[in-house]
Amino acid sequence: MGVTRKEASLLIRRRRVSCDDVAVRTAASHVDPATQVVRVNGEVVAWHARRVLMLHKPAGVVTANHDEHDRTVFDLVPPDLRRDLVAVGRLDKDATGLLLLTDDGALVHALTHPKRGIEKVYEVTYEGTLVDPEARFAAGVTLADGTRCRPASFEALAPGRCRLVVHEGRYHQVKRMIAACGGHVTELHRAAVGGLRLDPELAPGAVRPLTDAEIDALDGRD
Ligand code: URA
C-alpha cells in the first residue's frame, strides 16, 4: 500500500490505523516496524521505507526501463537502490536536469496526475524569433496539432534563453510550445518540480535520496 502523508493523516484521523491493535491517534506517533504490527482498515501492512531519489539527468541517457542502444536513467542508480524504481514523468534523451525516481506509486500519481497540475520549471535555449511568447504562454499555447495547453509562464532571460513554468507534462511539451511560437529548442534543462529545485551541488549523472524535508515538501502539494 502506498499513501501520501496527507492520506495517512486522514486515515489516522478516521481511526483506520492501529499499532499492536491500539488505534493510532496522531500522525506524530512513533512506530517501530521491526517489533510492532501496524494495520490499516484491519489489514496488516508490509513495511518498507520508500525510496525517493533526485537524479541530475545528463544529456544522452533515456528515460526508459530498458533500451537496446542507450544507457537509461536507471543505469545511473547504484544497483542496491534500483529495485522497483520508476521515473516521475520523463525527460527527453537530449534534456538535462531534475528527474525524480521512486518506488512509491502514490507519489508518482500525486506528482503526475493532470488534475494536480504540479508545476515544472524549465530553462530553455532556442533558435529563432518567438512571436509574442509571454502573452501566448499566459493564454495557453495552441500546439501544431491543435492541442490547447494550459496557461504557463514565459520569462525571457537573454536573447534565445528563457525560463518556463508549465503545469502539465505532455509528450515533448516544451519543444512543441516553443515551436508553436516560432522557435526551435536546442537545450532543455528542468530546474524544479513541484517546488523542489535541482540540488546545485549534484553533478550531472549523480543521484541522491531526497531528505525528509524535501519529501514532505513534495507530499504537501495538492
Ligand atoms: N518538454 C520537452 O519537450 N521535453 C522534455 O524532456 C520535457 C518537457
Give an account of the 3D structure:
The chain has three domains: 5-44, no CATH class; 52-114 and 195-219, Alpha-Beta Plaits (2-Layer Sandwich); 119-193, Alpha-L RNA-binding motif (Alpha-Beta Plaits, 2-Layer Sandwich), CATH 3.30.70.1560. Strands 5, 6, 7, 8, 9, 10, 11, 12 and 13 form a nine-stranded mixed β-sheet that branches. The protein has helices at residues 5-13, 105-112, 133-139, 173-180, 212-219; strands at residues 17-19, 22-23, 38-40, 43-44, 52-57, 86-87, 96-102, 120-127, 153-158, 161-166, 184-193, 196-197, 207-209. It is elongated. With 222 residues, it is an alpha+beta fold. The model has no long low-confidence stretch (mean pLDDT 91). It is built from five helices and 13 strands. The two termini are 20 Å apart. The structure holds uracil.
